[in-house]
Specification:
- There is one protein chain.
- With 233 residues, the protein is mainly alpha-helical.
- The chain has one domain.
- It is 74% helix and 0% strand.
- It has eight helices and no strands.
- The radius of gyration is 18 Å and the shape is globular.
- Pfam families: FLQE3_permease.
Length: 233
């Protein structure tokens, strides 16, 4: 069933130009990185990688859900044999795959190299799952992008704070709370092509993102059913 839902979502996403635009954003990020001197790439590439899988995915999944609410597609989940949990998983997996394509474009074009690409792919896949599920959870309550704008900005700001902490700009002990933000473990994967990140650190980062994915799925499952499925009956 998930395979059929993914196929349907892919067709609709291509026809509506949502997914091509998503890929073009990755291409645009890669081209933008070409303007930076090579010494800045270890700092800028991880930021662009977070924007592509995480924050762009967080925004795009919301716009998809708004459109499908208006079309009645989500409301139909309450009266059709399609499992709404499969709907959540299918959308998450599809956007994660698209994020990997975008990340490859960013690395190939922006750095002119694919060194460390396996680290990036793993990080992008896990980060994308977390942020897409969080996007589903948050956007389920809203009906248009105007209402969704404030959560997008909030997630953007919070997700970028770990970069400031990692680079030594937020030194107070209180800022260690940022280790709990999902972009922080993702940052280690995005830094791995440029720095010597230990295998132990990457392993714990993967565990943290998997735990985050489980929490995000649980929240998405509850809120999506409450606000999007049950709320539209």
């Amino acid at each position: 069933m998930i395979g059929n839902i993914i196929k349907t979502n892919l067709i609709l996403g291509v026809r509506s130009y949502v997914y091509p635009i998503y890929i073009l954003i990755g291409l645009a990020y890669g081209l933008m990185l070409m303007a930076f001197p090579e010494r800045y790439l270890p700092t800028m590439v991880p930021i662009f990688l977070l924007f592509e899988p995480g924050l762009v995915g967080f925004m795009f999944v919301g716009t998809e859900i708004f459109a499908e609410k208006k079309d009645g597609a989500i409301g139909a989940l309450a009266v059709t044999p399609i499992d709404w949990r499969s709907y959540i998983l299918a959308k998450t997996l599809l956007l994660s795959m698209l994020s990997i394509i975008g990340a490859i474009l960013i690395m190939a074009i922006g750095t002119r190299s694919l060194n460390g690409l396996p680290y990036v792919i793993v990080g992008v896949f896990l980060v994308s799952i977390v942020y897409t599920l969080l996007g589903i959870a948050v956007s389920a309550k809203y009906y248009d992008l105007d209402d969704y704008f404030v959560p997008i900005m909030g997630v953007l700001i919070i997700s970028l704070l770990p970069f400031a902490h990692y680079h030594g700009y937020l030194t107070n002990e209180i800022w260690k709370v940022l280790y709990l933000v999902p972009s922080y473990p993702g940052l280690y994967f995005f830094k791995a092509p440029f720095e010597g990140i230990s295998t132990n650190t990457l392993a714990w980062s993967a565990v943290a993102l998997i735990v985050w994915a489980g929490v995000a799925y649980y929240i998405a499952k509850i809120r999506f059913y409450k606000y999007a499925v049950e709320g539209l009956r």
